[in-house]
Specification:
Length: 227
């Protein structure tokens, strides 16, 4: 499979001018869209998997082919990693590339918009949460598809956990930090470098000479960011 590595081309100059209003409105109005059946089924399976296990919970949301999910699972052997992606093709690629499975790693094909809400409804609180290279939706008119401007931003905050978000579009991380500021969470955008890439997209961006950006929030309040 080929990954697109184009640099971000956006008609938006800096943080979206309506972002504060959008985030505020989303915080005040819970998302009402019904849960898709396939995500409910995937969630039930994840719940069952967790029931027989001890240890904390980590999400790799939008895991793609799941390279990062394996690294996270190996680095956190006492935690349970749930790797979520809606793409059967990407999840299927994981199975073809990596022969072995890891005991503390579960892949679920699900829509994050629903999976996060189901997790909040079950009062799940995460130990860590990775959102690595989410689709940037760089067109200004698509701002509400970005996680921090989406109606499930509230759920993301309620899930808590040490949160790591990375993008090759600095504006995405600047906006994420801005949205966190609205709920009084201090964060900053920093350039992200490391010896080894953690995800397929990260590898491609670096090979293409692109800079990658990160915001990381350590030590969320007990019970999530909003409680
Ligand atoms: C740009 S890719 C990054 C994948 C991986 N994190 C990486 O860095 O290689 C974004 C991923 O998010 C997934 N995704 C986007 N929206 C989603 C949603 N609503 N529910 C589940 N997965 C979603 C896509 O299928 C895709 O695999």
């Amino acid at each position: 499979m080929k990954f697109k590595t184009q640099r971000i081309d956006s008609n938006q100059d800096g943080i979206h001018e309506r972002l504060a209003d959008i985030v505020q409105r989303n915080l005040e109005h819970p998302f009402q869209k019904p849960i898709a059946e396939h995500t409910q089924t995937a969630f039930n399976q994840a719940k069952e998997w967790l029931a027989s296990r001890s240890g904390g919970m980590i999400f790799d949301s939008g895991c793609g082919i799941g390279e990062s999910s394996r690294i996270i699972a190996q680095q956190n052997p006492h935690s349970n990693v749930i790797a979520i992606d809606r793409s059967e093709v990407r999840l299927g690629k994981h199975e073809r590339i990596f022969e072995s499975t890891l005991d503390n790693l579960l892949f679920v094909r699900a829509d994050i918009l629903d999976f996060w809400r189901l997790a909040v409804a079950e009062n799940w609180v995460l130990e860590k949460h990775f959102i690595l290279y989410p689709n940037p939706y760089p067109k200004a008119t698509h701002v509400q598809r970005r996680w921090h401007a989406s109606p499930v931003f509230t759920d993301l905050l309620k899930l808590g956990g040490e949160l790591t978000v990375r993008s090759n579009w600095k504006t995405y991380i600047d906006e994420f930090v801005f949205a966190l500021g609205i709920v009084n969470i201090e964060a900053e955008t920093v350039e992200y470098t490391a010896e080894q890439p953690m995800t397929a997209f990260e590898r491609k961006y670096w090979a293409d000479g692109q800079t990658t950006w990160q915001t990381c929030i350590k030590k969320p309040p007990e019970g999530g960011f909003l409680n």
